[in-house]
């Protein structure tokens, strides 16, 4: 790892080496405490949702898969609104703050310093995630519990947003040569950048596929009710059923 200049403007643990953060204050909590707080908080949000979403409004017991998906959205909603929402509200001063949420972000920023340098693209992305996708996650939980017809539309929309966000996150960092953290570092790169973001690169695409299939099935059923037959002439045009 490259050595850092002795100038006080560089007295922080972030990359690139010349990143200017004159208001930076060192965390008061050690690394393992911050990571433990994050993991426990995620687990609490997941388990709390698990306890709350046992049945739908008709009294039917939810299947394991249904509960797991709703717990994913419950946990994601808490992360988006609380953790990422805090970042969007304090992005300009977060490097100099030592609240528990600020210390979480300052620790994570050791793998990606864009989260303490008020990077425009990152903050815009996180603002959309926090204030659109976050409430959207909670709305999905409510829609599935109440069996609202919009439930798969909302799941599709939020999952597309989450997938788009994680793609922007990695693609922009790739084009900047992963210059905002120590590449291949076992904690800062593999745990923080890859590990903590991996669920949002894997689960939302699976939920997009599920909602896509459900919505296509619903459209086929609606077409049947409305008297439309599937294409049969090979040209992709639907024909009206003869009465």
In terms of structural class, how would the helical and strand content be classed?
mainly alpha
Biggest sheet strand order reads 1-2
Q: Low-confidence runs (pLDDT<50, min 5 residues)? A: 1-9, 236-243
Radius of gyration: 22 Å
Strand segment count: 2
Morphology: elongated
- Note the gap between the termini: 77 Å
N to C succession of SSEs: HHHHHHHEE
The tally of helices reads 7
Question: How would you describe this structure to a colleague?
Answer:
The chain is mostly helical. The protein has one domain (16-227). The protein is built from 7 helices and 2 strands, in the order αααααααββ. It has helices spanning 31-52, 64-90, 100-108, 120-146, 151-175, 188-195, 198-225; strands at residues 228-229, 239-240. A two-stranded antiparallel sheet has the order 1-2. The longest helix is centred in the last third of the chain and has 28 residues, at 198-225. The radius of gyration is 22 Å and the shape is elongated. Mean pLDDT is 91; it is low at 1-9 and 236-243. Pfam families: EBP. It is found in: Membrane. Its main location: membrane.
């Amino acid at each position: 790892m490259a050595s850092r200049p002795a100038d006080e403007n560089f007295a922080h643990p972030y990359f690139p080496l010349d990143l200017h953060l004159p208001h930076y204050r060192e965390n008061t909590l050690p690394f393992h405490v911050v990571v433990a707080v994050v993991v426990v908080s995620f687990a609490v949000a997941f388990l709390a949702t698990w306890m709350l979403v046992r049945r739908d409004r008709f009294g039917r017991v939810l299947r394991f898969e249904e509960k797991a998906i709703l717990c994913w959205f419950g946990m994601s909603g808490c992360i988006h609104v609380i953790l990422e929402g805090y970042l969007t509200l304090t992005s300009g001063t977060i490097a100099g703050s030592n609240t528990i949420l600020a210390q979480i972000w300052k620790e994570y920023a050791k793998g990606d310093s864009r989260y303490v340098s008020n990077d425009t693209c990152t903050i815009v992305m996180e603002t959309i995630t926090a204030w659109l996708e976050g409430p959207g996650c909670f709305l999905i939980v409510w829609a599935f519990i109440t069996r609202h017809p919009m439930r798969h539309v909302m799941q599709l929309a939020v999952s597309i947003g989450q997938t788009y966000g994680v793609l922007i996150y990695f693609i922009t960092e790739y084009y900047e040569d992963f210059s905002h953290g120590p590449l291949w570092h076992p904690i800062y790169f593999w745990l923080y950048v890859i590990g903590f973001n991996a669920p949002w690169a894997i689960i939302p695409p699976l939920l997009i596929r599920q909602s896509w299939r459900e919505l296509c099935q619903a459209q086929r059923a609606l077409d049947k009710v409305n008297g439309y037959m599937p294409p049969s002439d090979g040209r992709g045009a639907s024909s009206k059923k003869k009465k």
